[in-house]
Input
Amino acid sequence: MRGISKQFGRVQALDNVGLSVTSGSIHGVVGENGAGKSTLMKVLYGAYQADSGEVKVNGKAVNIRSSKEAIALGIGMVSQHYGIVPELSMLDNLILGAEPAMVLDKSAIRERAGKIAASIGLNYGNDIWDRDASAISASEAQRLEILKLLWREARIMILDEPTAMLSPKDGEALFGSLRALTKEGATVLLVTHRLPEIMEYCDRVTVLRGGKWIADVPVSETNPEQLSELIVGRTVSVSVRPEPIPAAAPALEVRNLSVARDRGTDAVQNASFALAPGELVGIAGVDGSGQADLFRALLGVTPTREGEVLWQGQPITSRSTSARIELGWRILPEDRLSEAIVSDWSLIDNSTLGLHRLPEFADGGKIRNQERAAFAQKAAEKFGTKHGGLDAAIGGLSGGNQQRFVAARMTESGPKFFMAFQPSRGLDIAATEDLYKAMQERCREGASGLVVSFDLDELMSHCHRVLVMFSGKVIVPPVDADRDLLGRLMVGGEA
Amino acid sequence: MKQIALIVACVVAFIGMLMLGGISPIEAAQTLISGSLGSPRAISGSLKETTPLLLAGLGVFFALRAGLFNIGIEGQFLLGGFASALVALAVPGPVGLLLAMVAGVVAGALWALPAGWIRAYRNGHEVITTIMLNSVAIALTDFLVAGPVRAANQTGATTATIPTSGRLPALLNSPPWNVSSGLLLGLLLCAAMAWWMKRRVAGYELQAVGANASAAEFAGINVAKVRMNAMLVSGGIGGLGGAIQTLAFEGRFYQGFSPGYGFDSLGVALLAGSNALLVVPMSLLFGVLSKGGTSLLILGVPKGLTNLVAGLVILISATIRYRKAASDA
Output
């Protein structure tokens, strides 16, 4: 792939990116969220069309317009979301969409399926092929996805965060299978944020940052420290980091908090940390490290499995979300559309969503319309939300303007403790600065705040302190931890 | 806007079906309008048909605003009508009337309770459970009225007739005009609901759950409780509709008590969209269709044609809701 560029609206997702992969190797692609890894892979297997640049497969220039064309060229992708039909058997899933003939010769299919499984070191008999796909584990589902690609005779396989759902042991087995494949000449492209995987299993690694190509190095000539430096990059930031807050009795204290996931390991594992009054604390980490689960549990939206949350010394673990809101807790949730707003509702109606029971906005059971309208006005003005009237549906606003509005709902409603998830999403630099200023202002008034961002620089230049989350664990680095250390911790490195 | 498009589509479909049956649409329209709005008598008849549709429609509407599709309104309507007949027969006079109305509300709410509980706390879909409860309600009331509570001197499967003193009085009774106070109750309830939805915190919460349940959770709203209560209230209103049907019009409960008011009311509520006040014109529309449909019998148009229209409305609205839900996910 050479000179690949791709633009989404005003965002340059890929800017003149090149990628060259030797056949028979495992090639890593790393970068922060938004670095362009997934976009590049989607261009390769035909989900996106590049605006410019060329793709060559085995020396021949190709134009891949769909995943069907990609698979015809031997390029297949195992995504994070498996495409398995639970009602069908393993074997039926294997051949689904790539049946060899109108009338199926089951014994021939079984024979070929067995050979394919053997090629990645799996001994699958009829008993396994006839199993219902609904009964298989995440790692089996992943293997089935790989087998599906092999059934379609893929020679170049793209795996996007393949170990995200796997236990370390299953992860090892997966890489064992991939190794077996590459020995037979197949090529594997591995998108990951886990540096240990790169170091252990990859031959070469390409680093992307902010949609740009940064480096392409043989793994044998690099180390995790250098890689994390390349991934995070060094940019000069404008704002000055606030001085650390002197130690004080904590406003918020989290003790040994664990949050269960639907299945598998806990989403948040034994988290312990504390926030002083007036402290703005960042949580760094790659997406999906458990930040959203931590926020949901702190707000009381999802139950905690174990542990305790204390607010000003009082345990509040069993209190409802509305009770926490009453205490002055506010949130800017992860997913704006599904968690923060009602798209069909007006800005006025949305302005008090979550605040609607507070005495400012409710007189007994009656909505205080004037106060509400005044607050909506104030919230819209705070960060310059552009809107077509406070009575118009918020769904008609751009994402950035919605973000301005819901961010102001958090900062302007007298928070005592606030949690902001990726607050700068959709905002330009000026609005981001304004928002952080407002959060810092609330902290100067005595509130405490937690900010999750995938952008380490953003946190380091605005927060008193930065914690790190990595695969469900909250790491509390020293207050003076530098960005090298934090960057290493974010990808599972040692302190 | 969506509602208007829906109505136009239904009218077109209606005309199409008439033409399929070889009936001139113009002739049919004339017959339908004269049969439903052409005389004081016809108008009174249309308003009589409108009343149960208005009440049941309000019940469905209430649940819909909480994001629940209470197809079980037919069963709740039947149970309400049945319970109120029993109470009105047991306790005479105005006190009995009042108690009978309360009994109707309670019976309807209780009939909705399992569906509400399963939806709120076990995430079992209310459409499935309420459809099943409808079948049970029909079979149960049919059985009771055919056996245990059947009036002694009657040939049909029916309760005894409630004396006039135990019935809802007419609002206007000067033949050929005849309008029941049940209609007024429905209108008052509609106005109260519209006000509650707009002005009360609880109404705000209910609609937040209906519009975006996960955002409602983040806003500290107890989604399960709201769903449970919404289903109870919806069933209660359906039961009240049944009670008014008994106490204002029928004077007794019998097999075949509801010709499908509950089902037509699904169309009423879906057409009303997000505005409670629109339940009134929509129930009137269905009431007129239902009354006029009777006149169409002369032209050879089967009586079930209004059901067809209601079915179409439900089908189209359900598709729109499904597409919206799918695109939100």
